[in-house]
Amino acid sequence: MSTYTVILDACVMYPAPLRSYLLYLACTGLYRARWTNKIHDEWIGNLIKNNPNLDPVKLKRTRELMDKSVPDCLIEGYEPLINGLTLPDSDDRHVVAAAIKGQAESIITFNLKDFPKDELRQLELSTIHPDEFLCDMFELDASACIAAAQNQRHSLKNPQMSAEEFLSCLQKQKLPSFVSKLRQFQTIL
Fold first, then answer.
1. How far is residue 155's CA from residue 118's CA, in Å, rounded to a whole number?
2. Gap between the Cα atoms of 167 and 44, Å rounded
3. Is the pTM value of this prediction over 0.90?
4. Looking at residue 3, what is its pLDDT?
């Protein structure tokens, strides 16, 4: 059986709760998460720009832990493909090039308009909003999604969160449909 492979765009890596959940879910084996060092640079750069007091050493450690926790996550050697791609925002071409090189089926992103469907279809790629992606994963394997949520919530130490607080935090990540599915299992989260 082939595993569904996706590229995590920088915009889904920036909010820590969503990034963390996506990684916990990837560790269940339900899908294969991939990214590049450039995607790391983008989400970390945006985070520091909006929160200049953050410790770069801690962010570097987060990056290293992410790369270590998801086997074969880093895509390299995609750069020669960039110039042959056309997108509304040329700064997004590296994501599509990585998706091609990494043999991904989809790009998980909030910025759907930046990746036109017609152009991606020609490359046998699609984009998917994180809420839709997670709902799809829930339909494929609800127990894996619940286990990922349990593992993420139980890993939170500073601060610890009740199941309700955890779901409210995910709700703020623009995941209303997915959170409504998880909410049915709140008592075991």
1. 41
2. 25
3. yes
4. 77
